[in-house]
DNA sequence: ACCGTCAATGACAACGGTGTCATGTCTAGG
DNA sequence: CCTAGACATGACACCGTTGTCATTGACGGT
């Protein structure tokens, strides 16, 4: 900028004025400055400016998700980005792989970069470590999972209700021997879905004591193995509820391996790509990750714009998509499939 | 930082030393400073530091892709992130939707933020506008598509060769009436793939004049419609080559709508999720986006570490995955399917 | 002719840190 | 006892930009 000023033969502040479109610069001066800036390929350093600028906004938000390679996170990311982009805000994205030990480190990295807001899918059991940062004015918003130990805007899916609805459907088809295949219990969404599943069974009077509840599944491979074990057990379930997209896929592979995909019912949480094209079509609880991202970003920007209403939790409704796998009836004898 | 210094009763510079782990600070002083920093929840402003720091590295890279919601971009992003994370570097990601008008704006946004490196999947026909920036020291790396008008490290897939190989396979199965369904011709990868497709047909003596080459398909819907038109034409093709994941999916939907999915052969470029589970399995050219991302990031960091060898183009090999759809033979009469 | 207003402009401090250098203190060697 | 290092520390300028304020000159009204 110094160079531009010299070349245009004006003061530093005048260049600053031109660059920022401030008023009271003679048209002829403006032209000279612009020409000089062009010639030197000048680009203002946004961070140097932010240092002095009042309000001190970096127009940057951080997004922490499971993995940017996961379609759920990808859609959510896109939702955030679309809103951010329209406000000239850049997005830092980071993957946690639900690894609690990375959370503090990555969040701290982002805070050093002075993000205006943070949109988090948390892993740690407790987010109270963020309180001082929130106090300082950084806008915190949680997506997909509710935080603990801190109060902030939160965007979630109706996990328990949707899981219960899917379970109710399986029961209505006639199933009594169900099984739950889910992610690690520490993950908030996983435990919510399990709760919904079990609560619904309780409601309709299915004894939950005998229902296999398998947890700790985090990828296709572990879900595949767990499903095989279930299918090979002495009294295999007639319907499966899977609590997450990767688990659903691993389970489908296992069902196919055993040739049971048209005989054991399946309802999954999270939509999976091409779920309508495989045989049978995969019935799922479809969340709306794009909308969750948009809503989260929208909350962040509202807060940055000065909204100081009490924190709220927005529940983005999910939809049951019936494609067939959830409508497979239990075998006639009501026992072995 | 001022506050920390005051609280610890030391000078500013001493706090700086402690925070940055510089030597020559008495153990007792260090402890006092750390305690004060902890108490005030002090976090250094990375950008303020970079202002004065020699070398002036922000430890930030920008990633510009098609869409963060696309699984290809997602995997690539993850590849970049994994390497970046290990170097304490944050990643800005932005989606272009292959919209040329967004390219300059988004790139310029990132440059204002003083990214150390930029990993780009470009849309514009010409990237010479980046030359001054490259001169200035910003590391430029292109992924997936070759740049024009500028020299820089580039990571690509063997597009033409792989497309030719897939085409060769379709021909070897007996097909002569093929069709190409592809993205907009301005997109470098799309035109490379078309070239590979047509060149291979030429090589084996299939007259390309009668081969439908449909371009400008950018999403499922347009591919769906285009495929229907092809299938409903007086002399429909017996084999289809689709040049991109979304196009492949739209085409599969169309084939199913017409009940032709087991009678018309299909080879797609880009792997699609669950492609092995639908009927018939989808034969594809599988790229390795994760590896492309990793390699791109690795080039960027090598350059930042001072590597000044001539720019190179790395070709990440792709694999033909045969799952069935590419092995459907043409109908016996050799004409109408 | 005089004065108040207002547009145009630049000098200067400040933002939150780091590089450089001077200063003071302590220790070991002569 | 004296002195050369080595260590510990802070004063100060500076990074690139913006907020504040003072200065200058032109202009309109009386």
Automatic annotation (TrEMBL), chains A, B:
Q: Where is the HTH lacI-type domain?
A: 1-53
* Keyword Transcription regulation appears in the UniProt entry: yes
Q: What's in the keyword line of the UniProt record?
A: DNA-binding, Transcription, Transcription regulation
Instruction: Tell me which domain of life the UniProt entry assigns to the organism this sequence originates from.
Output: Bacteria
- What is the protein named? LacI family transcriptional regulator
Natural source organism: Conyzicola nivalis
């Amino acid at each position: 900028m110094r160079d531009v000023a010299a070349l245009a033969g004006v003061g530093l502040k005048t260049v600053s004025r031109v660059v920022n479109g401030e008023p009271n610069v003679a048209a002829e001066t403006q032209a000279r400055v612009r020409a000089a800036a062009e010639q030197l390929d000048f680009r203002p350093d946004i961070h140097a400016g932010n240092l002095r600028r009042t309000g001190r906004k970096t127009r940057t938000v951080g997004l922490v998700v499971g993995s940017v390679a996961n379609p759920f996170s990808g859609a959510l990311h896109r939702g955030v980005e679309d809103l951010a982009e329209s406000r000239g805000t850049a997005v830092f994205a980071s993957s946690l792989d639900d690894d609690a030990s990375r959370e503090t480190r990555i969040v701290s990295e982002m805070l050093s970069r002075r993000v205006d807001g943070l949109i988090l899918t948390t892993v740690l059991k407790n987010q109270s470590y963020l309180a001082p940062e929130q106090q300082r004015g950084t806008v915190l918003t949680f997506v997909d999972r509710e935080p603990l130990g801190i109060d902030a805007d939160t965007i979630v899916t109706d996990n328990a209700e949707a899981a219960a609805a899917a379970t109710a459907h399986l029961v209505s088809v006639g199933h009594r021997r169900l099984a739950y295949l889910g992610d690690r219990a520490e993950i908030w969404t996983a435990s919510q879905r399990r709760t919904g599943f079990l609560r619904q069974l309780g409601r309709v009077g299915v004894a939950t004591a005998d229902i296999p509840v398998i947890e700790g599944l985090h990828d296709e491979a572990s879900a595949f193995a767990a499903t095989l074990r279930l299918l090979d057990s002495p009294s295999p379930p007639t319907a499966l509820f899977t609590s997450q997209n990767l688990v659903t896929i691993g389970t489908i592979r296992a069902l196919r391996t055993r040739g049971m995909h048209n005989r054991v019912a399946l309802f999954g949480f999270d939509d999976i790509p091409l779920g309508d094209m495989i045989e049978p079509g995969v019935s799922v609880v479809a969340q709306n990750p794009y909308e969750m991202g948009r809503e989260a970003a929208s909350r962040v920007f509202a807060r940055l714009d000065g909204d100081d209403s009490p924190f709220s939790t927005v529940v983005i409704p999910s939809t049951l998509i019936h494609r067939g796998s959830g409508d497979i009836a239990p075998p006639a004898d009501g026992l072995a499939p």
